[in-house]
């Protein structure tokens, strides 16, 4: 007879829950999600075939010739399709598609153009940041403007502004931000904050109506004084600076944004140290928790981007070898080519499985958990939209609602849950980004000089894919995050970032 395991002994690595997301999630996941994911793919595929394929290379060429060009027509095309409200929860006036379907949607668009995928993905990065602050009043206000914009025909987009000229990847890590050079200052004043400083590499900066900005009340203690502000374009003291020069993803412009005594009223403060007073967790702990929650969902999107880029390179290569002859024989009949195509297919499949597995993890332990709880999911799905929006409006008007949900989310999280979702997301991010680069490299190897021709689309995909290894935390930082969450946690003597600090001191 089998005996039950003795739970007095610590679990051995790997911990079973770390490697069984899909196994546990299948029975808990609402069945309706499968249909939503399928519909999202069909929507993306239709838009890709009818809009993107005829225009992608021409748009890339146009922006190379005129770097200041802003592709408003692409924003308007996505806006007409309702893509900017499709993943806003119905409680806040959106279509309420399940968040895991966004990754599949982004993969489909990325297989043709990473720039277009990023135009949409970055909007939901801003929304995701707003959501994890759990400020219901600000969420309601911003989402309502997005919803109303579909009636007026004028797009309302959201961006995330965290990167500064003197700090990049460091900003998302409490241990690093306190050692970095931070400059974006929010000074408390009567009725709000005065914001001064700048942010760089802000995707959709020229297009966005709302910018979710990370600033600091005390530049000497950034992680303890971090503050998230919702800044609206057109606010006095706010301006969009120069457009960044990029080698890839040109359809999604990035720019500098500047703040010069920009007054942000208290009702646009998403999360501040004053709002977390009295919590059992310190503001520094909440700062790190917020970013771990955010990157657990945002890095899924980067993996989907990489999967799409890898798939696009594979599909273009397959077409090329099936049509090209060498010495009277089609390239597709060469064994070395068949082996390379199999390798490309492997890269696509593994990275897709990684973003799917990360989605399962977020449904079990992360941001998606509440929305994928079956009673909540089906209530959102079948309740009349007017009733849901009325309920959302009532909740958002009462500060106690925000306080209650924040205490649930920010005080009672389990560290092992964060380790699982943030760890697997970090792995998905760098693995997916690397898959995109690797498949472009293989495509170049097979196609030779033909791969350098703009018309074949491979060199564009290679330029586009390189950015995936850089933004949303460099691949190097994501490797450290994987180590921090899932490898080094079992060793009490492990320390992080001490070597980099010594190098900085020596310099």
What can you tell me about this protein's structure?
The strands form three sheets. A four-stranded mixed sheet has the order 1-4-5-8. The termini are far apart. It contains 16 helices and ten strands. Helices cover 54% and strands 12% of the residues. The radius of gyration is 23 Å and the shape is globular. The longest helix is centred in the middle third of the chain and has 41 residues, at 283-323. The protein has helices at 21-28, 32-65, 72-80, 100-110, 114-133, 136-152, 174-177, 283-323, 335-365, 374-382, 385-397, 399-411, 415-447, 458-466, 475-487, 498-506, and strands at 158-161, 185-189, 192-203, 210-216, 226-232, 238-243, 254-265, 269-271, 325-326, 329-330. It is α+β, with helices and mostly antiparallel strands and 507 residues long.
Question: How many β-strand stretches?
Answer: 10
Strand arrangement, major sheet: 1-4-5-8
What is the overall pLDDT average? 92
Q: What is the count of DSSP helices, taking H or I runs of 4+ residues? A: 16
Q: Give the overall silhouette.
A: globular
Structural category:
alpha+beta
Q: What's the N-to-C terminus distance?
A: 64 Å
Low-confidence stretches: 6-10
What profile does the largest beta sheet have? 4 strands, mixed
Looking at the chains present, what oligomeric state does this protein adopt? Answer: single chain
Helix content: 40-55%
Bin the strand percentage.
5-15%
Helix-strand pattern: HHHHHHEHEEEEEEEHEEHHHHHHHH
Determine Rg (CA atoms, Å).
23 Å
């Amino acid at each position: 007879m089998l005996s039950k395991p003795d739970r007095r002994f610590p679990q051995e690595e790997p911990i079973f829950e770390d490697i069984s997301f899909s196994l546990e999630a299948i029975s808990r996941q609402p069945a309706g999600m499968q249909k939503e994911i399928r519909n999202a793919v069909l929507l993306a595929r239709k838009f890709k075939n009818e809009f993107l394929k005829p225009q992608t290379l021409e748009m890339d060429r146009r922006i190379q010739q005129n770097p200041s060009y802003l592709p408003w027509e692409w924003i308007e095309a996505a806006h007409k399709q309702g893509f900017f409200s499709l993943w806003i929860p119905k409680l806040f006036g959106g279509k309420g598609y399940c968040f895991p379907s966004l990754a599949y949607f982004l993969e489909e668009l990325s297989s043709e153009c990473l720039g277009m995928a990023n135009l949409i993905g970055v909007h939901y990065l801003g929304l995701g940041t707003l959501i994890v602050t759990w400020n219901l009043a600000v969420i309601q206000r911003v989402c309502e403007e997005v919803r109303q914009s579909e009636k007026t025909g004028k797009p309302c987009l959201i961006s995330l502004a965290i990167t500064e000229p003197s700090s990049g990847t460091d900003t998302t890590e409490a241990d690093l931000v306190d050692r970095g050079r931070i400059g974006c200052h929010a000074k408390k004043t009567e009725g709000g904050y005065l914001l001064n400083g700048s942010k760089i590499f802000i995707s959709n900066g020229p297009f966005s109506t709302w910018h979710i900005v990370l600033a600091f009340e005390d530049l000497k203690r950034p992680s303890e004084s971090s503050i998230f502000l919702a800044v609206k374009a057109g606010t006095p003291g706010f301006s969009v600076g120069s457009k960044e020069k990029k080698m890839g993803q040109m359809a999604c412009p990035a720019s500098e944004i500047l703040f010069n005594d920009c007054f942000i009223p208290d009702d646009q403060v998403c999360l501040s140290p004053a709002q977390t007073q009295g919590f059992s967790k310190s503001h520094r702990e909440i700062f790190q928790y917020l970013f771990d929650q955010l990157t657990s969902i945002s890095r899924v999107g980067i993996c989907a981007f990489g999967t799409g880029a890898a798939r696009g390179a594979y599909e273009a290569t397959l077409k090329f070898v099936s049509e090209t002859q060498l010495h009277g024989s089609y390239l597709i009949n060469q064994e070395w080519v068949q082996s390379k195509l199999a390798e490309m297919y492997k890269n696509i499949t593994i990275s897709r499985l990684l973003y799917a597995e990360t989605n399962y993890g977020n449904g079990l332990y992360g941001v998606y958990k509440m929305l994928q709880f079956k009673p909540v999911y089906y209530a959102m799905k079948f309740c009349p939209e007017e009733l849901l929006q009325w309920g959302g409006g009532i909740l958002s008007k009462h500060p106690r609602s925000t306080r209650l949900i924040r205490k649930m989310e920010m005080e009672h999280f389990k560290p092992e849950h964060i380790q699982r979702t943030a760890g697997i997301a970090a792995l998905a991010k760098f693995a997916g980004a690397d898959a995109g680069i690797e498949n472009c490299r293989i495509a170049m190897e097979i196609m030779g000089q033909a791969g350098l021709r703009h018309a074949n689309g491979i060199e564009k995909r290679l330029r586009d894919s390189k950015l995936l290894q850089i933004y949303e935390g460099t691949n190097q930082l994501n490797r450290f995050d994987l180590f921090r969450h899932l490898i080094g946690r079992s060793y009490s003597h492990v320390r992080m970032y001490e070597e980099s600090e010594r190098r900085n001191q020596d310099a």
